[in-house]
Amino acid sequence: ARVLANLDGPVASIGPAGTGKMSVARIMHEHGGGAPDMFSQLDCREFRSRNDANRKIGAELAAGQGRTLVFKSPHLMNGEAQARLARQMASRRLADTSPPQALPRMRLIGLFPDSLERLVRRGQLHEQLASVFAGMPINVPPIRDRKQAVLRWAHKILGQEGVRRDRDMKGFTSDAERAMLLYDWPGNISEMRQCICDALDKTEKNWLTPVDLGLFKGIDPEGAAEMGAALTCRIYRLEDGRISPLPSNEFLLPALAPKRGIKSKNPVPGPPSTATSLFFSVLVSVLLVACVFS
Questions:
Q1: Of 96, 221, 233, 294, which residue is most buried, by most CB within 10 angstroms?
Q2: Which H or E run contains 242?
Q3: d(Cα 121, Cα 114) in Å, to the nearest integer?
Q4: DSSP SS3 for 184
Q5: How many angstroms separate the CA atoms of 92 and 135, rounded?
Q6: CA-to-CA distance for 180 and 289, rounded, in angstroms?
Q7: Which pLDDT tens digit goes with each residue over 163-206?
Q8: Three-class secondary structure of residue 49 per DSSP
Q9: Pairing mode, strands 207-208 and 289-290
Q10: In what order do the strands lie in the sheet with 242-245?
Q11: pTM for this one?
C-alpha cells in the first residue's frame, strides 16, 4: 500500500468483509501526503438508482482535485453506472461536460470482497470497471491468515476506543493476548473492534482480560487454556515465617469452575499448623488469597 501510494492509477483493495480494506486505503492516502479532510468515500450500496449513482459519482469526481476517493463495493452498482465510471477513469475525462473537462488529479481506490475475475464471472462486476482496477490490486487476507497482525490491530483498536471514551487504557493481560492469538476471528477486524468495544462497555478496568473479551472456552485436563488462558487464582501461603505464592494457573477461580464443570487440580491448602509467635498465629489463621487476572 505504501509503494502504491505515490503511483497515479486506480487501485483495487481486495479481501473479505472486515479485513481492513478501508484501513489500507487510509494508509495509501496518508503516505501519499493527503490531508485528513481530503479523504472521501462513497458506499455504492446506498445508491438508489443508476441516476442517483451517476449524479453522486459525477459530483465527487468533479470536486476531486488532490483528494482520495474510495468506492466501497462498486460491483453492487447498476451495470450501466459501472461502465460509465470505468469510461471516465480510463479516458481521464469527466462525462457529460461541455466543453470536455479532464478528470482532476486524484487517487481512486475500489474496495472489493473477492477477486475481480470471480466477481466478473458471477455477473456482479462490469468487465470495463474490472479492467480499470485490475492494474494495481492489493490483496488483504483474513486476519486468521496473518496472526502477526492480530495483536497490532488489537492494541491499535484499544487505543482508538480508549481515546474515544476518554479512558487511559493500559492494554491486554498476557492471557488476553494469548486468547486473541488462538481465536480465528471469522468476522475479521470488524469483529475484533466490536469485541473490544463490548469489553470496554462491561468493565471499568484499564487492562482487558479474557473474561472481558469473552474469548476463553474452557480448560483442558492439564489446566491449560484451550482457547485463551484460564481465569486463575493465585494463592499465597505462610510457611515457616515466609509468604510464598503457589504456582500460577494451579487453581481455578472458584466462581468459574462450577460453571465450566471443572475442578481444581489441587485442593486449596489450609493454614500452617505451627506458629512461633502470636503474630504468626494471627496471620496463619487467614489464608492470603489474591485473585489476579494474569
A1: 233
A2: strand 242-245
A3: 11
A4: coil
A5: 15
A6: 28
A7: 999 999 999 999 999 999 989 888 888 899 999 999 999 999 99
A8: coil
A9: unpaired
A10: 242-245, 234-239, 289-290
A11: 0.61
